[in-house]
Amino acid sequence: MEANENLAFDALSDRVRRRILAELGREGELTVTEIANRIDSVGRTTVSSHLRVLRTSGVVIERRDGRNRYYSLDRDGTVRDAFVYLQSIMDRAVDGIAAPDVTGQDEQDDRREHEAG
Amino acid sequence: MTSTTVAADRVVDLPRHEVFALFGTTGSAGWLFGARCDRVAEGATVSMRLPVGDGPDAESLELLGRFSRVVPGTLLVVEHTQPWQGRLCIRFRADGVARTRVTVRATIPDPGVQWLLHRVGIPLPDPPDDGSIRIGAITTMSGPGAIYSVSAQAMAELAVDEVNSDGGVAGTRLTLLTADDATDAAQAAFEARRMVALGCRAVFVNSTSASFEAVRDAVESSGVLLVHSVINEGGGDSATTLRLGERPRAQLEALVGPTMRASGGARRWYLVGQDYVWSRGAHRDARRVIDAAGGDVAGERLTPLGTTDFGTIIESVQASGADLVLSSLVGADEVAFERAAERAGLRDTTRTVSLVLDDATFSHIGGRAAEGLRTALGYFQGGPVGGNAELVARYHAAHGAWAPPITALSETVYEAIHQYARVLHLDPHGSAADHVTAWRTRRGAGRGDVVGNRDLLAPPLYTAEATRSSLLVDGAS
Protein backbone atom coordinates (compact mmCIF):
# COMPACT_ATOMS: atom_id res chain seq x y z
CA MET A 1 0.00 0.00 0.00
CA GLU A 2 1.53 3.30 -1.12
CA ALA A 3 1.01 6.08 1.39
CA ASN A 4 -0.44 8.48 -1.21
CA GLU A 5 -3.16 6.03 -2.26
CA ASN A 6 -5.06 7.16 0.79
CA LEU A 7 -4.81 10.86 0.01
CA ALA A 8 -8.38 11.37 -1.11
CA PHE A 9 -9.69 10.30 2.25
CA ASP A 10 -7.28 12.57 4.07
CA ALA A 11 -9.84 15.18 3.04
CA LEU A 12 -11.86 13.70 5.90
CA SER A 13 -9.43 15.15 8.38
CA ASP A 14 -10.25 18.76 7.57
CA ARG A 15 -13.63 20.49 7.93
CA VAL A 16 -12.84 23.30 5.48
CA ARG A 17 -11.94 20.75 2.81
CA ARG A 18 -15.18 18.91 3.44
CA ARG A 19 -17.09 22.17 3.06
CA ILE A 20 -15.29 22.97 -0.20
CA LEU A 21 -16.13 19.54 -1.57
CA ALA A 22 -19.72 19.84 -0.43
CA GLU A 23 -20.08 23.16 -2.28
CA LEU A 24 -18.52 21.68 -5.42
CA GLY A 25 -20.83 18.70 -5.12
CA ARG A 26 -23.83 20.99 -5.00
CA GLU A 27 -22.82 23.58 -7.57
CA GLY A 28 -20.84 21.46 -10.04
CA GLU A 29 -18.09 23.88 -11.02
CA LEU A 30 -16.83 26.94 -9.13
CA THR A 31 -13.94 29.41 -9.10
CA VAL A 32 -11.82 30.04 -6.01
CA THR A 33 -13.66 33.30 -5.35
CA GLU A 34 -17.06 31.64 -5.67
CA ILE A 35 -16.00 28.94 -3.20
CA ALA A 36 -14.62 31.50 -0.73
CA ASN A 37 -17.89 33.46 -0.92
CA ARG A 38 -19.87 30.35 0.03
CA ILE A 39 -17.82 29.44 3.09
CA ASP A 40 -17.96 31.81 6.04
CA SER A 41 -14.75 32.91 7.71
CA VAL A 42 -12.42 31.38 5.13
CA GLY A 43 -10.43 33.59 2.76
CA ARG A 44 -9.38 33.08 -0.85
CA THR A 45 -5.81 32.20 0.08
CA THR A 46 -6.93 29.44 2.44
CA VAL A 47 -9.36 28.08 -0.14
CA SER A 48 -6.55 28.03 -2.75
CA SER A 49 -4.22 26.08 -0.50
CA HIS A 50 -6.94 23.53 0.30
CA LEU A 51 -7.76 23.21 -3.40
CA ARG A 52 -4.10 22.44 -4.08
CA VAL A 53 -4.26 19.54 -1.60
CA LEU A 54 -7.53 18.29 -3.07
CA ARG A 55 -6.16 18.49 -6.63
CA THR A 56 -2.97 16.61 -5.70
CA SER A 57 -5.00 13.86 -4.08
CA GLY A 58 -7.19 13.51 -7.17
CA VAL A 59 -10.52 14.47 -5.61
CA VAL A 60 -10.84 17.76 -7.51
CA ILE A 61 -10.21 18.57 -11.18
CA GLU A 62 -9.04 21.98 -12.40
CA ARG A 63 -10.18 23.42 -15.75
CA ARG A 64 -8.66 26.56 -17.22
CA ASP A 65 -10.68 28.89 -19.41
CA GLY A 66 -8.75 32.01 -20.34
CA ARG A 67 -7.70 33.63 -17.08
CA ASN A 68 -10.21 31.71 -15.00
CA ARG A 69 -9.71 28.42 -13.27
CA TYR A 70 -12.74 26.29 -12.49
CA TYR A 71 -12.84 23.46 -9.99
CA SER A 72 -15.11 20.41 -9.89
CA LEU A 73 -15.22 16.97 -8.27
CA ASP A 74 -13.46 13.99 -9.83
CA ARG A 75 -16.19 11.46 -9.06
CA ASP A 76 -14.61 8.44 -10.74
CA GLY A 77 -11.35 8.98 -8.91
CA THR A 78 -13.16 9.33 -5.61
CA VAL A 79 -15.20 6.14 -5.99
CA ARG A 80 -11.98 4.26 -6.70
CA ASP A 81 -10.34 5.90 -3.70
CA ALA A 82 -13.21 4.90 -1.42
CA PHE A 83 -12.30 1.27 -2.02
CA VAL A 84 -8.60 1.93 -1.64
CA TYR A 85 -9.42 3.67 1.64
CA LEU A 86 -11.52 0.76 2.91
CA GLN A 87 -8.72 -1.61 1.96
CA SER A 88 -6.21 0.55 3.82
CA ILE A 89 -8.39 0.44 6.95
CA MET A 90 -8.36 -3.36 6.87
CA ASP A 91 -4.61 -3.41 6.26
CA ARG A 92 -3.88 -1.07 9.15
CA ALA A 93 -6.08 -3.14 11.45
CA VAL A 94 -4.12 -6.32 10.77
CA ASP A 95 -0.73 -4.56 10.52
CA GLY A 96 -1.05 -3.73 14.19
CA ILE A 97 -1.24 -7.38 15.20
CA ALA A 98 1.39 -8.89 12.93
CA ALA A 99 4.96 -9.59 13.96
CA PRO A 100 7.23 -7.27 11.93
CA ASP A 101 8.91 -10.11 10.01
CA VAL A 102 5.68 -11.41 8.50
CA THR A 103 4.03 -8.06 7.67
CA GLY A 104 5.50 -7.79 4.19
CA GLN A 105 5.08 -11.34 2.94
CA ASP A 106 1.35 -11.37 3.49
CA GLU A 107 0.67 -8.28 1.36
CA GLN A 108 -0.33 -10.45 -1.60
CA ASP A 109 -3.02 -12.08 0.49
CA ASP A 110 -5.06 -8.87 0.65
CA ARG A 111 -8.18 -9.07 -1.44
CA ARG A 112 -10.99 -6.93 -2.54
CA GLU A 113 -14.11 -8.31 -4.15
CA HIS A 114 -17.64 -7.28 -5.00
CA GLU A 115 -20.55 -9.52 -4.34
CA ALA A 116 -24.30 -9.35 -4.59
CA GLY A 117 -25.96 -9.40 -1.22
CA MET B 1 -29.08 -4.35 -2.32
CA THR B 2 -25.49 -4.97 -3.37
CA SER B 3 -22.64 -4.88 -0.94
CA THR B 4 -18.89 -4.66 -1.13
CA THR B 5 -16.45 -6.81 0.77
CA VAL B 6 -12.95 -5.73 1.68
CA ALA B 7 -10.56 -8.10 3.46
CA ALA B 8 -7.02 -8.39 4.71
CA ASP B 9 -5.14 -11.00 6.70
CA ARG B 10 -1.91 -11.45 8.62
CA VAL B 11 -0.08 -14.22 10.45
CA VAL B 12 0.74 -13.67 14.12
CA ASP B 13 3.33 -15.63 16.12
CA LEU B 14 0.93 -16.59 18.88
CA PRO B 15 -1.41 -19.53 19.42
CA ARG B 16 -4.99 -19.05 18.25
CA HIS B 17 -6.67 -18.73 21.66
CA GLU B 18 -4.06 -16.25 22.86
CA VAL B 19 -4.63 -14.01 19.86
CA PHE B 20 -8.38 -14.23 20.35
CA ALA B 21 -8.06 -13.38 24.04
CA LEU B 22 -6.25 -10.13 23.15
CA PHE B 23 -9.36 -8.72 21.49
CA GLY B 24 -10.81 -5.74 23.29
CA THR B 25 -8.55 -6.06 26.32
CA THR B 26 -7.01 -3.00 27.86
CA GLY B 27 -3.30 -2.78 27.18
CA SER B 28 -3.73 -3.78 23.56
CA ALA B 29 -4.93 -0.37 22.39
CA GLY B 30 -4.47 -0.15 18.66
CA TRP B 31 -4.80 -3.90 18.27
CA LEU B 32 -7.51 -4.55 15.70
CA PHE B 33 -8.89 -1.01 15.63
CA GLY B 34 -8.29 -0.47 19.35
CA ALA B 35 -11.53 -2.30 20.07
CA ARG B 36 -13.23 -1.38 23.35
CA CYS B 37 -15.73 -3.70 24.99
CA ASP B 38 -16.47 -4.86 28.51
CA ARG B 39 -16.91 -8.44 27.38
CA VAL B 40 -16.65 -10.49 24.21
CA ALA B 41 -20.08 -12.09 24.06
CA GLU B 42 -23.03 -12.13 21.68
CA GLY B 43 -25.09 -8.97 22.15
CA ALA B 44 -22.31 -7.07 23.95
CA THR B 45 -21.55 -3.54 22.79
CA VAL B 46 -18.24 -2.85 21.06
CA SER B 47 -16.59 0.24 19.60
CA MET B 48 -13.56 0.46 17.34
CA ARG B 49 -11.52 3.33 15.94
CA LEU B 50 -10.98 3.52 12.21
CA PRO B 51 -7.89 5.48 11.20
CA VAL B 52 -8.48 8.55 9.04
CA GLY B 53 -5.50 10.40 7.65
CA ASP B 54 -2.13 10.85 9.32
CA GLY B 55 -0.48 13.53 11.36
CA PRO B 56 -1.35 15.42 14.53
CA ASP B 57 -4.73 16.72 13.32
CA ALA B 58 -5.93 13.35 12.05
CA GLU B 59 -9.40 12.37 13.21
CA SER B 60 -10.59 8.87 13.61
CA LEU B 61 -14.01 7.46 12.91
CA GLU B 62 -15.70 5.42 15.56
CA LEU B 63 -17.34 2.19 14.51
CA LEU B 64 -20.19 1.38 16.93
CA GLY B 65 -21.82 -2.02 17.04
CA ARG B 66 -22.56 -5.27 18.82
CA PHE B 67 -21.17 -8.78 18.62
CA SER B 68 -23.66 -10.84 16.67
CA ARG B 69 -21.63 -14.05 16.75
CA VAL B 70 -18.81 -15.20 19.01
CA VAL B 71 -17.05 -18.55 18.62
CA PRO B 72 -14.23 -18.48 21.19
CA GLY B 73 -10.81 -18.82 19.60
CA THR B 74 -12.29 -18.89 16.11
CA LEU B 75 -14.68 -16.15 15.04
CA LEU B 76 -16.03 -12.70 15.94
CA VAL B 77 -18.79 -11.01 13.97
CA VAL B 78 -19.73 -7.39 14.69
CA GLU B 79 -22.88 -5.77 13.28
CA HIS B 80 -22.46 -2.01 13.32
CA THR B 81 -24.61 1.02 12.53
CA GLN B 82 -22.03 3.82 12.84
CA PRO B 83 -20.38 5.45 10.98
CA TRP B 84 -22.09 3.36 8.32
CA GLN B 85 -24.17 0.22 8.58
CA GLY B 86 -22.27 -2.98 7.92
CA ARG B 87 -20.65 -6.11 9.25
CA LEU B 88 -17.11 -6.87 10.35
CA CYS B 89 -15.96 -10.47 10.53
CA ILE B 90 -12.71 -11.47 12.24
CA ARG B 91 -11.59 -15.07 11.80
CA PHE B 92 -8.75 -16.80 13.65
CA ARG B 93 -7.16 -19.91 12.09
CA ALA B 94 -4.17 -21.98 13.21
CA ASP B 95 -1.28 -21.56 10.77
CA GLY B 96 1.35 -24.07 11.90
CA VAL B 97 2.54 -24.47 15.46
CA ALA B 98 1.83 -21.47 17.72
CA ARG B 99 0.97 -19.29 14.73
CA THR B 100 -2.41 -17.81 13.86
CA ARG B 101 -3.78 -16.33 10.66
CA VAL B 102 -6.17 -13.46 11.44
CA THR B 103 -8.55 -12.44 8.65
CA VAL B 104 -10.56 -9.24 8.85
CA ARG B 105 -13.44 -8.90 6.41
CA ALA B 106 -15.71 -5.86 6.17
CA THR B 107 -19.04 -6.08 4.35
CA ILE B 108 -20.37 -2.68 3.37
CA PRO B 109 -23.82 -2.34 1.78
CA ASP B 110 -24.33 0.45 -0.78
CA PRO B 111 -25.56 3.07 1.71
CA GLY B 112 -22.25 2.62 3.55
CA VAL B 113 -20.24 3.25 0.39
CA GLN B 114 -22.48 6.27 -0.28
CA TRP B 115 -21.77 7.55 3.22
CA LEU B 116 -18.03 7.31 2.59
CA LEU B 117 -18.27 9.11 -0.73
CA HIS B 118 -20.51 11.80 0.77
CA ARG B 119 -17.98 12.28 3.54
CA VAL B 120 -15.38 13.37 1.00
CA GLY B 121 -17.83 15.61 -0.80
CA ILE B 122 -19.67 13.51 -3.38
CA PRO B 123 -23.36 14.44 -3.14
CA LEU B 124 -25.86 11.87 -1.92
CA PRO B 125 -28.01 10.57 -4.79
CA ASP B 126 -31.26 12.48 -5.27
CA PRO B 127 -34.38 10.50 -4.39
CA PRO B 128 -36.62 9.42 -7.30
CA ASP B 129 -39.22 11.98 -8.33
CA ASP B 130 -42.22 9.78 -7.52
CA GLY B 131 -44.73 12.32 -6.22
CA SER B 132 -44.29 11.19 -2.60
CA ILE B 133 -44.19 13.61 0.33
CA ARG B 134 -40.59 14.10 1.43
CA ILE B 135 -39.41 14.62 4.98
CA GLY B 136 -35.82 14.82 6.21
CA ALA B 137 -34.08 13.47 9.30
CA ILE B 138 -30.64 14.75 10.28
CA THR B 139 -28.97 12.27 12.61
CA THR B 140 -25.41 11.73 13.76
CA MET B 141 -23.39 8.88 12.29
CA SER B 142 -19.93 10.15 13.24
CA GLY B 143 -18.21 12.34 15.79
CA PRO B 144 -18.87 12.37 19.54
CA GLY B 145 -22.68 12.44 19.08
CA ALA B 146 -22.79 9.15 17.18
CA ILE B 147 -23.18 7.13 20.39
CA TYR B 148 -26.58 8.52 21.42
CA SER B 149 -27.71 8.45 17.78
CA VAL B 150 -27.06 4.75 17.03
CA SER B 151 -30.71 3.85 16.49
CA ALA B 152 -32.04 7.24 15.31
CA GLN B 153 -31.99 6.55 11.59
CA ALA B 154 -33.45 3.06 12.01
CA MET B 155 -36.29 4.44 14.17
CA ALA B 156 -37.05 7.24 11.69
CA GLU B 157 -37.17 4.62 8.92
CA LEU B 158 -39.46 2.42 11.01
CA ALA B 159 -41.91 5.29 11.53
CA VAL B 160 -42.01 6.14 7.81
CA ASP B 161 -42.45 2.47 6.85
CA GLU B 162 -45.34 2.16 9.30
CA VAL B 163 -47.02 5.32 8.02
CA ASN B 164 -46.73 4.01 4.46
CA SER B 165 -48.04 0.55 5.31
CA ASP B 166 -51.02 2.26 6.93
CA GLY B 167 -51.82 3.97 3.61
CA GLY B 168 -49.46 6.95 3.71
CA VAL B 169 -50.49 10.55 4.34
CA ALA B 170 -53.79 11.54 2.72
CA GLY B 171 -53.22 8.74 0.22
CA THR B 172 -49.65 9.75 -0.64
CA ARG B 173 -46.50 7.89 0.36
CA LEU B 174 -43.89 9.45 2.65
CA THR B 175 -40.25 9.36 1.61
CA LEU B 176 -37.52 9.81 4.22
CA LEU B 177 -34.27 11.56 3.35
CA THR B 178 -31.52 11.05 5.91
CA ALA B 179 -28.16 12.70 6.44
CA ASP B 180 -25.28 12.64 8.91
CA ASP B 181 -24.34 15.94 10.54
CA ALA B 182 -21.04 14.45 11.82
CA THR B 183 -21.74 16.26 15.15
CA ASP B 184 -20.97 19.47 13.25
CA ALA B 185 -23.46 22.36 13.19
CA ALA B 186 -22.24 23.68 9.81
CA GLN B 187 -22.70 20.24 8.27
CA ALA B 188 -26.22 20.03 9.76
CA ALA B 189 -27.11 23.36 8.14
CA PHE B 190 -25.70 22.17 4.81
CA GLU B 191 -27.77 18.98 4.91
CA ALA B 192 -30.90 20.90 5.90
CA ARG B 193 -30.51 23.26 2.94
CA ARG B 194 -30.25 20.25 0.65
CA MET B 195 -33.39 18.72 2.18
CA VAL B 196 -35.31 21.97 1.71
CA ALA B 197 -34.05 22.27 -1.88
CA LEU B 198 -35.35 18.72 -2.49
CA GLY B 199 -38.80 19.77 -1.31
CA CYS B 200 -38.98 18.27 2.19
CA ARG B 201 -42.10 19.44 4.04
CA ALA B 202 -40.49 18.92 7.45
CA VAL B 203 -36.94 18.46 8.73
CA PHE B 204 -36.37 16.55 11.97
CA VAL B 205 -33.08 17.42 13.64
CA ASN B 206 -32.09 14.50 15.85
CA SER B 207 -28.86 16.07 16.97
CA THR B 208 -27.31 18.66 19.26
CA SER B 209 -28.86 22.03 20.07
CA ALA B 210 -25.90 23.56 18.21
CA SER B 211 -26.93 21.67 15.06
CA PHE B 212 -30.58 22.60 15.56
CA GLU B 213 -29.75 26.30 15.90
CA ALA B 214 -27.59 26.21 12.77
CA VAL B 215 -30.40 24.48 10.84
CA ARG B 216 -32.92 27.04 12.09
CA ASP B 217 -30.70 29.93 11.02
CA ALA B 218 -30.14 28.33 7.60
CA VAL B 219 -33.67 27.32 6.59
CA GLU B 220 -36.26 28.85 8.93
CA SER B 221 -37.30 31.42 6.34
CA SER B 222 -38.06 28.68 3.80
CA GLY B 223 -41.43 27.84 5.36
CA VAL B 224 -40.48 24.25 6.17
CA LEU B 225 -41.53 22.76 9.53
CA LEU B 226 -38.46 22.31 11.74
CA VAL B 227 -38.59 19.81 14.57
CA HIS B 228 -35.87 19.35 17.17
CA SER B 229 -36.62 15.77 18.06
CA VAL B 230 -34.28 15.12 21.00
CA ILE B 231 -33.84 16.24 24.60
CA ASN B 232 -32.87 19.93 24.66
CA GLU B 233 -32.65 23.02 26.88
CA GLY B 234 -35.69 24.67 25.25
CA GLY B 235 -36.25 28.24 24.13
CA GLY B 236 -36.21 29.80 20.68
CA ASP B 237 -39.60 28.47 19.57
CA SER B 238 -41.23 30.10 16.56
CA ALA B 239 -44.33 29.70 14.42
CA THR B 240 -42.67 27.02 12.27
CA THR B 241 -40.39 25.28 14.77
CA LEU B 242 -41.10 22.75 17.48
CA ARG B 243 -38.66 21.53 20.12
CA LEU B 244 -39.65 18.17 21.54
CA GLY B 245 -38.27 15.85 24.17
CA GLU B 246 -37.11 16.10 27.75
CA ARG B 247 -36.15 19.42 29.36
CA PRO B 248 -33.35 19.64 31.93
CA ARG B 249 -35.54 21.52 34.42
CA ALA B 250 -38.00 18.62 34.70
CA GLN B 251 -35.18 16.05 34.73
CA LEU B 252 -33.39 17.90 37.53
CA GLU B 253 -36.53 18.23 39.59
CA ALA B 254 -36.98 14.45 39.36
CA LEU B 255 -33.34 13.77 40.25
CA VAL B 256 -31.70 16.40 42.46
CA GLY B 257 -33.81 16.33 45.65
CA PRO B 258 -34.34 12.55 45.75
CA THR B 259 -30.64 11.86 45.11
CA MET B 260 -29.62 14.22 47.93
CA ARG B 261 -32.07 12.56 50.32
CA ALA B 262 -30.96 9.06 49.28
CA SER B 263 -27.32 10.03 49.80
CA GLY B 264 -27.78 10.78 53.49
CA GLY B 265 -27.28 14.51 53.63
CA ALA B 266 -24.99 14.98 50.63
CA ARG B 267 -25.47 18.51 49.32
CA ARG B 268 -22.33 19.73 47.50
CA TRP B 269 -22.68 19.41 43.73
CA TYR B 270 -20.08 19.59 40.99
CA LEU B 271 -21.45 20.34 37.50
CA VAL B 272 -19.69 18.88 34.45
CA GLY B 273 -20.94 19.69 30.97
CA GLN B 274 -20.21 20.69 27.39
CA ASP B 275 -19.18 24.15 26.35
CA TYR B 276 -22.24 25.00 24.26
CA VAL B 277 -25.83 26.11 24.60
CA TRP B 278 -27.17 22.75 25.88
CA SER B 279 -25.08 22.51 29.04
CA ARG B 280 -25.18 26.24 29.67
CA GLY B 281 -29.00 26.06 29.74
CA ALA B 282 -29.04 22.83 31.75
CA HIS B 283 -26.62 24.15 34.37
CA ARG B 284 -28.59 27.37 34.75
CA ASP B 285 -31.60 25.21 35.62
CA ALA B 286 -29.42 22.98 37.82
CA ARG B 287 -28.31 25.91 40.00
CA ARG B 288 -31.94 26.88 40.61
CA VAL B 289 -33.09 23.33 41.39
CA ILE B 290 -30.06 22.60 43.62
CA ASP B 291 -30.59 25.83 45.50
CA ALA B 292 -34.27 25.07 46.02
CA ALA B 293 -33.36 21.61 47.34
CA GLY B 294 -30.96 23.12 49.88
CA GLY B 295 -27.76 22.13 48.12
CA ASP B 296 -24.90 24.22 46.79
CA VAL B 297 -22.54 24.13 43.83
CA ALA B 298 -18.92 23.37 44.74
CA GLY B 299 -17.60 23.73 41.21
CA GLU B 300 -18.37 23.64 37.51
CA ARG B 301 -16.51 22.75 34.33
CA LEU B 302 -17.64 23.08 30.74
CA THR B 303 -15.53 21.29 28.16
CA PRO B 304 -15.73 21.29 24.33
CA LEU B 305 -17.68 18.49 22.67
CA GLY B 306 -15.10 15.89 21.61
CA THR B 307 -13.08 15.93 24.85
CA THR B 308 -11.41 12.57 25.48
CA ASP B 309 -9.19 13.26 28.51
CA PHE B 310 -11.12 14.05 31.68
CA GLY B 311 -8.20 13.66 34.10
CA THR B 312 -8.00 17.33 35.07
CA ILE B 313 -11.75 17.65 35.49
CA ILE B 314 -11.91 14.55 37.71
CA GLU B 315 -9.06 15.89 39.86
CA SER B 316 -10.94 19.15 40.16
CA VAL B 317 -14.10 17.31 41.26
CA GLN B 318 -12.07 15.44 43.88
CA ALA B 319 -10.38 18.62 45.11
CA SER B 320 -13.69 20.47 45.43
CA GLY B 321 -15.02 18.24 48.18
CA ALA B 322 -18.22 17.65 46.20
CA ASP B 323 -20.23 14.60 47.14
CA LEU B 324 -22.61 14.82 44.19
CA VAL B 325 -21.86 15.16 40.47
CA LEU B 326 -24.21 16.37 37.76
CA SER B 327 -23.09 15.43 34.25
CA SER B 328 -24.72 17.04 31.24
CA LEU B 329 -22.01 15.59 28.99
CA VAL B 330 -23.28 13.83 25.88
CA GLY B 331 -22.26 10.89 23.68
CA ALA B 332 -18.61 9.90 23.53
CA ASP B 333 -17.70 12.61 26.07
CA GLU B 334 -20.10 11.15 28.64
CA VAL B 335 -18.73 7.65 27.95
CA ALA B 336 -15.12 8.82 28.40
CA PHE B 337 -15.94 10.82 31.55
CA GLU B 338 -17.87 8.07 33.34
CA ARG B 339 -15.29 5.40 32.50
CA ALA B 340 -12.47 7.63 33.73
CA ALA B 341 -14.43 8.66 36.85
CA GLU B 342 -14.98 5.02 37.80
CA ARG B 343 -11.29 4.19 37.22
CA ALA B 344 -10.24 7.17 39.36
CA GLY B 345 -12.39 5.99 42.28
CA LEU B 346 -14.82 8.91 42.07
CA ARG B 347 -17.74 6.57 42.80
CA ASP B 348 -16.31 5.98 46.30
CA THR B 349 -16.84 9.61 47.29
CA THR B 350 -19.64 10.89 45.02
CA ARG B 351 -22.99 9.95 43.53
CA THR B 352 -23.55 10.97 39.91
CA VAL B 353 -26.67 12.12 38.12
CA SER B 354 -26.45 12.15 34.32
CA LEU B 355 -28.92 13.94 32.06
CA VAL B 356 -28.19 12.14 28.78
CA LEU B 357 -27.76 8.58 30.00
CA ASP B 358 -29.90 6.89 27.34
CA ASP B 359 -29.76 3.14 26.68
CA ALA B 360 -27.06 3.43 24.00
CA THR B 361 -24.80 5.72 26.02
CA PHE B 362 -25.21 3.34 28.98
CA SER B 363 -24.20 0.35 26.87
CA HIS B 364 -21.02 2.11 25.68
CA ILE B 365 -20.06 3.18 29.20
CA GLY B 366 -20.53 -0.45 30.20
CA GLY B 367 -22.23 -1.80 33.33
CA ARG B 368 -19.07 -1.86 35.43
CA ALA B 369 -18.36 1.86 35.06
CA ALA B 370 -22.01 2.95 34.90
CA GLU B 371 -23.32 1.10 37.95
CA GLY B 372 -25.08 3.51 40.31
CA LEU B 373 -25.51 6.40 37.84
CA ARG B 374 -28.98 7.95 37.94
CA THR B 375 -30.98 9.60 35.19
CA ALA B 376 -34.52 10.69 34.24
CA LEU B 377 -35.75 10.37 30.66
CA GLY B 378 -39.04 9.93 28.85
CA TYR B 379 -38.21 6.50 27.46
CA PHE B 380 -36.13 3.45 28.30
CA GLN B 381 -36.04 0.33 26.17
CA GLY B 382 -36.86 -1.71 29.27
CA GLY B 383 -39.39 0.86 30.53
CA PRO B 384 -43.10 0.62 31.19
CA VAL B 385 -44.53 2.93 28.47
CA GLY B 386 -47.69 1.38 27.03
CA GLY B 387 -47.10 -0.43 23.75
CA ASN B 388 -43.36 -0.61 24.33
CA ALA B 389 -43.00 -4.39 24.01
CA GLU B 390 -44.75 -4.26 20.64
CA LEU B 391 -42.55 -1.35 19.51
CA VAL B 392 -39.36 -3.21 20.46
CA ALA B 393 -40.62 -6.31 18.61
CA ARG B 394 -41.45 -4.32 15.43
CA TYR B 395 -38.07 -2.58 15.57
CA HIS B 396 -36.14 -5.83 15.79
CA ALA B 397 -38.29 -7.46 13.12
CA ALA B 398 -37.38 -4.59 10.77
CA HIS B 399 -33.75 -4.02 11.75
CA GLY B 400 -32.53 -7.36 13.06
CA ALA B 401 -31.89 -8.96 16.42
CA TRP B 402 -28.60 -7.08 16.85
CA ALA B 403 -29.90 -3.61 16.08
CA PRO B 404 -28.70 -1.09 18.69
CA PRO B 405 -31.05 -0.24 21.56
CA ILE B 406 -33.98 2.10 21.07
CA THR B 407 -33.19 5.18 23.15
CA ALA B 408 -35.07 8.15 24.57
CA LEU B 409 -33.66 10.12 21.63
CA SER B 410 -34.52 7.68 18.84
CA GLU B 411 -37.98 6.92 20.27
CA THR B 412 -38.71 10.66 20.13
CA VAL B 413 -37.95 10.96 16.41
CA TYR B 414 -39.97 7.78 15.73
CA GLU B 415 -42.98 9.12 17.53
CA ALA B 416 -42.53 12.66 16.19
CA ILE B 417 -42.72 11.39 12.61
CA HIS B 418 -45.91 9.45 13.42
CA GLN B 419 -47.49 12.49 15.07
CA TYR B 420 -46.46 14.77 12.20
CA ALA B 421 -47.92 12.32 9.69
CA ARG B 422 -51.28 12.50 11.52
CA VAL B 423 -51.24 16.30 11.55
CA LEU B 424 -50.33 16.36 7.85
CA HIS B 425 -52.97 13.74 7.03
CA LEU B 426 -55.71 15.97 8.45
CA ASP B 427 -54.43 19.09 6.68
CA PRO B 428 -52.26 18.05 3.72
CA HIS B 429 -52.23 21.50 2.14
CA GLY B 430 -51.68 23.49 5.33
CA SER B 431 -48.57 25.56 6.01
CA ALA B 432 -45.81 24.66 8.48
CA ALA B 433 -47.29 27.23 10.88
CA ASP B 434 -50.75 25.57 10.59
CA HIS B 435 -49.13 22.23 11.38
CA VAL B 436 -47.27 23.57 14.42
CA THR B 437 -50.54 25.01 15.75
CA ALA B 438 -52.40 21.76 15.13
CA TRP B 439 -49.62 19.72 16.77
CA ARG B 440 -49.59 21.96 19.85
CA THR B 441 -53.39 21.72 20.10
CA ARG B 442 -53.42 17.94 19.71
CA ARG B 443 -51.07 17.36 22.61
CA GLY B 444 -53.74 18.28 25.13
CA ALA B 445 -55.88 15.32 24.12
CA GLY B 446 -54.66 13.40 27.18
CA ARG B 447 -54.27 9.92 25.76
CA GLY B 448 -51.82 8.86 28.43
CA ASP B 449 -48.28 7.56 28.24
CA VAL B 450 -48.58 5.19 25.30
CA VAL B 451 -46.18 4.82 22.35
CA GLY B 452 -47.49 6.96 19.52
CA ASN B 453 -49.55 9.26 21.76
CA ARG B 454 -46.98 10.60 24.21
CA ASP B 455 -46.89 14.33 24.84
CA LEU B 456 -43.53 14.98 23.20
CA LEU B 457 -43.60 18.67 24.16
CA ALA B 458 -43.44 17.81 27.86
CA PRO B 459 -42.92 14.06 28.13
CA PRO B 460 -43.62 12.35 31.46
CA LEU B 461 -40.28 11.20 32.90
CA TYR B 462 -39.10 7.93 34.35
CA THR B 463 -36.19 7.82 36.75
CA ALA B 464 -33.70 5.00 36.35
CA GLU B 465 -30.55 3.72 37.97
CA ALA B 466 -27.77 1.89 36.14
CA THR B 467 -27.11 -1.66 37.27
CA ARG B 468 -24.35 -3.88 35.90
CA SER B 469 -26.62 -5.01 33.09
CA SER B 470 -29.20 -2.30 32.35
CA LEU B 471 -30.91 0.94 33.22
CA LEU B 472 -33.51 -0.08 35.77
CA VAL B 473 -36.60 2.14 35.88
CA ASP B 474 -37.47 2.86 39.52
CA GLY B 475 -39.94 5.72 39.42
CA ALA B 476 -42.13 8.00 37.37
CA SER B 477 -42.87 11.70 37.59
Automatic annotation (TrEMBL), chain A:
Domain spans labelled HTH arsR-type: 1-101
Record key words, sorted: DNA-binding, Transcription, Transcription regulation
SMART domains assigned to the protein according to its UniProt record, in alphabetical order: HTH_ARSR
Keyword DNA-binding: yes
SUPFAM superfamilies given in the database record: Winged helix' DNA-binding domain (SSF46785)
This protein's record includes keyword RNA-binding: no
Domain of life of the source: Bacteria
Region (Disordered): 97-117
Record NCBIfam families: HTH_metalloreg
Cross-referenced PANTHER family: TRANSCRIPTIONAL REGULATOR, ARSR FAMILY, TRANSCRIPTIONAL REPRESSOR SDPR
The protein's name: Metalloregulator ArsR/SmtB family transcription factor
UniProtKB/TrEMBL annotation, chain B:
Domain Leucine-binding protein: 132-424
InterPro entries per UniProt: Leu-bd, Leu_Ile_Val-bd, Peripla_BP_I, START-like_dom_sf
Secretion signal, residue range per the UniProt entry: none
Keywords attached to this entry: Amino-acid transport, Signal, Transport
Record-annotated membrane-spanning stretches: none
One Pfam family from the record: Peripla_BP_6
Family (UniProt): Belongs to the leucine-binding protein family.
Name this protein carries in UniProt: ABC transporter substrate-binding protein
